[in-house]
Structures are given as C-alpha cells and as structure tokens.
Amino acid sequence: MKNLYNIFLTLLLAMFISGSFAQEKSIIDQLDEVAIVDQKVMMPMRDGVRLATDIYRPKGEGEYPIVFSRTPYNFNTWGDGEMNTRTMQSAIDWVKKGYAFVVQNERGRYFSEGDWDILGVPLTDGYDAFEWMAKQDWSNGKVGTLGCSSTAEWQMAVASLDHPALTALVPQGYGAGVGKVGDFWEQGNWYRGGAGQMLFTNWLYSVQHDPMAPKLPEGISQKDLLRLQRFYDMSPEYPKIDSKAALSHLPIQDIIKNQNGPMGIYEEMITRKPNDPKWFDSGLYNDEMPFDTPSFWFVSWFDVSAGPNIAMFNHARENAVSQLARENQYLVIAPVLHCSYTRATENTMVGDLNVGDARLNYDEIITAWFDLWLKGEKSETMEEMPRVQYYTMGANKWQTSDVWPPAEAVMTTMYLDSEGNANTLNGDGKLTPKKPKKDKPDTFKYDPMNPVTSYGGNVCCTGNALVGGSFDQSEMEKRDDILVYTTDVLEEGIEVSGFIESYIYLSSDAKDTDVTIKLIDVHPDGKAFNLDETIQRVRYREGYDKEVWMEDGEVYEVKMTPMSTSNYFDKGHRIRIEVSSSNFPRFDRNMNTGGNTYDETEGVIATNSIHHGAKSLSRIVLPIVK
C-alpha cells in the first residue's frame, strides 16, 4: 500500500509540474512570454491614408518572415468592454513558429483611414504594405498572405503587381476576389451566368459603413488609439433583420433602404451590368492580369464560388509568368460550407448530408507551405504534397490528382428526354446516354412572384433566408415548374469529378428569362440530395458584353455556367437534373420583361419550354472518372 501511495504522489507531482493542474495562463501572459506586441500602428499609404495595423513578432534580435492578413472585418482587441482573443491566439501560434504575424484593416474600415469600397480598395494599398513591412529591421523581407473569404479576396489582384516581398499566397474561399476567369464572369460573386447572387445584398446590410457614420480625426496618434480601442471599437451595431423577408422586397435596389440599413456602395453596385468598366477598375483579379506567385488554394464544394475558385487555380497553373510559379500551385477541395474547413468532423454534415470524416491537417499544410517559401525550409510534408487533394462525397474519402479535373475523367454526355411531361419528380423525364430522336418539349410557367424557393445549396452569407448545404429536394420537386430528369438505377457506381457542362435548348413567350439547373444524387430511399447548381440569364447567352432578347417561338441554345463537384453515385443510386427558371433567393428573380431587374417591381409570367430532340439536344456533360 505504501508503494502505491508513493506512486500516486509521484504522478500527482508530475502532473503539477507539467501544468495539468496549473491555472491556465492568460492570453496576455502567453503573448508576453514570446512576442513583442505593437498594436494600432498606422501604416502610411502613398496617398497619405494610414491603415490600422497590429504587429506581433518574436522576442529578441532577428529578422523574421511575415504572415500578413488584411481584412475588412473587426479585429480590435476589445469589444463591448471585453477582450477578444481570436487574433491574439493566431498571433501566438505564428510567433511560436518563428514568424511575425501582421493583421491590418482595409482602408475605411474601423480604425483605418480613408473610404471603403468592397471591391475597389486600391491595389496600391497592398503593394505599399509589402513595401513597408519589407523595410522593417525585424523583417527578413518575405511576406506570405493568409485569409479566408474577404480576408483572402484581395490577394490575387495585389499579386499581379509583383512586389518582390510577396513570396507566397494562401487564399481560402476567395471567390469574390475573382472577376473574370475561364468560363466564369462573376465579377466577384456578384453574378452567376449574368443573374444576381443575392448574398451580397444581405451581407452588405451588416457590413457597409454609412458615409455619414462618425470617424476619428485623421492623424490621431497611436497612443490615443491604444487608449480608445479599450472602449470604442468603431463597429456599428446593425439591428438584426429577417433576411428572408428582406430579400423578397422589390425593387431590389431598395432592399437595404427598406430595412433602414446603412447607405453605401450597394446602391451603386446593384446598377452595374456584368461588363461595366468599373468592375475592371476595382480590386478584382481578371485573367488578363499577370500572376506569378506560388499559391496554395483552398476551396469548398458547398461554397458559393467553388467553380471560379478552381478555375483560378487552373489559370494560375497554366498562365503564371514563370515556370517556378506555374509549378508551385496547389489545391485542396473540401466538402464543407464557406470557410468551414476546420469544422469538419468524423461525421461531417453539410446540411442533412453526412459526408463522413472530412478532416485534414490544415495547420500542418499551411505551416509547411510558408516554411518553404518564407524560410527556405522544405519539410517532408511538402515533399509528399499532392498537387490536388479533393474529397469525393458518396465514397467519402480524400483523393489526389496531379491536375483538375483528374486525368482519368472522361467527359460523358447524358441527354434530357421525356414524352413532354417532365414536370415534377412524378413526371416522365429521363436522363439517358441515348440521343432523343423526336423533340417533345416540356413546358412550364415561371411566375416571378411565385419563384422556386432555394433549399440548401452552394451559398454563404444569406442570413436566415437560406441555409447552405445538401438537403432532400424531393418535396420541392413536386412543383409543376420544376422539370425533373433522372437516370435509371445505376447498376454500378460512377464517380463524377470535375466541371459539369450543361446545354439547354429553350423557347419562351417572354423577351428574357432565366434557366436554372441542379445536379442531384438520388439515394435508394428516394431522397434527392443537391450537389451543385447554376443559372443563366438568357439575355447574356451570346456573351456578357451585350443583351440579346428572345423572340416568341424561336428555340435558343443556352450554355450554362459550369457546375463543379466530386461525387460517387453508388450502385443503386440515380443521377438527376432539375431544370427550372428560378432559384430564389439564391439568385435574384428575372421579371421576364427585359428590364433592369434591380429597379423593377412587377413582372410577367413566362411560358418556357425545354427542348430535347432532333437538333435541340438539351444535355449535360459529366466528367466520369474511369
């Protein structure tokens, strides 16, 4: 018994020494041990505007690489009288790895001076920040950028300026930073196929700063800012709204105004057409701009921007200025919602769909990437890094490839067919490898005042109006204005990985309308889980630089903006396509008049027909991995 008692005392003492029973140190104490903290540094830009910047760097003499995060979001240390520790925890993690961690607000945001434009912050701000950081005596002259969503979306366009200090990028969920790339002309997720994506209307309600909002005086000292930040974080407190009701208001241009929300950039941006020159004068990256920076890209299957994000990776890999940059583009595609990479679990849920264990060691990957490019240290992790890591749902596993789509993917055509009654899931619509010989069109009425309601999907930022992810669509498919085309039960499993092309032949009695499409995995129990969706505003079928109206009775080919996924349709499942003319509030409603959409309050009912025979072969082209 005495020996057991001694063993217990020994173990107890060891636990105290190791800290298991010790009181956890505060974040401030932890920072004080490892970092020099310099908050509210007002970094000067070339036009005299100063940007609020917090700097965390290792203690002691030395020159360190920099992980830089620039954001429109509030990272102030204090809010409502309480300390916010999220940024400081990231700072500790990077400082312990031997990096300086620098976080900065975009101009016009919180303590930063100047005026903010969601997509129009001067590219020179990024260039000037790199210049300033590279010249500090604690800097080794190398900067890597890191962030997700709005904290990532500025990176590509600034990289086009080719500042020598910018050595590597890690953009995550960066779709709103891509204006035009490959088959995607989205102007920062503002559009999809020329139709408005309503996420920005909801997002800007709670983000844009009213021009009449109070500002701190220019030239305020760092000393005063450090004092003020403890009790004044410059963050507006917008009343919560019912986003679902708010987005239903017409005209669209008055939605924020109707909620007594802030004035700002929205009222101007909502009037821009896809080819407006202002899109090309902003902070968006377009594929005519140079690119020459090694980048590790992170994409989500259920994000609003999976397609253009992947297209950006391919563009950089194929068109980067130098061979070095072309050979150093890497991609991860995860089966999660927007910026939810680290929330994957052993049983990852996206909506109602369990996609299995989708975890990945993101911290190890990103650290190895920056160690390589900012420190010159090549780890085993990077030596073994696949060019593309993608998660295949249905099979529920991570896979690797050297290219995207995988080289084994064979583009395989499936045709829409019916006897003219594909309306609802109980109709006679078929998806078949055989070309229909006769055109027996399926007809439905699209009423913009009673649109097909969005249910799940590849979205973000829409508040309570829409929850992203995959949900059983079968109840929705009872609507008469949804055409349903389904394969026979699969006798063997099929992996679809890559871009899905769609060509729909349409006639209408309206000047203009929309075509919507969804890719569905139908399980043996009949549940129909959405994988991706897209839309095309028909007036832009010949390009986004002009509007071409339809004539009653004419049949038009409508090439859809590509969908993207990696999904294993298991034996006993079926592949399904839904076709309609609305998916609201995921996308704004076409009022079928040929008007501006943003200033319309009344629409007309369109009688739309989908053709699928003879010369009008409506079809999808699936990348099937053999």
Automatic annotation (TrEMBL):
Q: Which residues form the Xaa-Pro dipeptidyl-peptidase C-terminal domain?
A: 367-621
Q: Does the keyword Hydrolase apply?
A: yes
Q: Which molecular function terms from Gene Ontology are attached?
A: dipeptidyl-peptidase activity
Which residues belong to the signal peptide in this entry? 1-22
Would the keyword Signal turn up in this protein's UniProt record? yes
SMART domains recorded:
PepX_C
Q: Which InterPro entries match?
A: AB_hydrolase_fold, CocE/Ser_esterase, Galactose-bd-like_sf, Xaa-Pro-like_dom, Xaa-Pro_dipept_C, Xaa-Pro_dipeptidyl-ppase/CocE
Q: Where in this protein does the record put region Disordered?
A: 423-444
Entry's Gene3D superfamilies?
alpha-amino acid ester hydrolase ( Helical cap domain) (1.10.3020.10), alpha/beta hydrolase (3.40.50.1820), Galactose-binding domain-like (2.60.120.260)
One short Pfam family name for this protein?
Answer: Peptidase_S15
SUPFAM superfamilies per record:
alpha/beta-Hydrolases, Galactose-binding domain-like
Which terms are listed as keywords in the entry? Hydrolase, Signal
Read off the PANTHER family from this record: COCE_NOND FAMILY, PUTATIVE (AFU_ORTHOLOGUE AFUA_7G00600)-RELATED (PTHR43056:SF10), PEPTIDASE S9 PROLYL OLIGOPEPTIDASE (PTHR43056)
Designated name of the protein: Xaa-Pro dipeptidyl-peptidase C-terminal domain-containing protein
Q: Specify the species.
A: Algoriphagus antarcticus
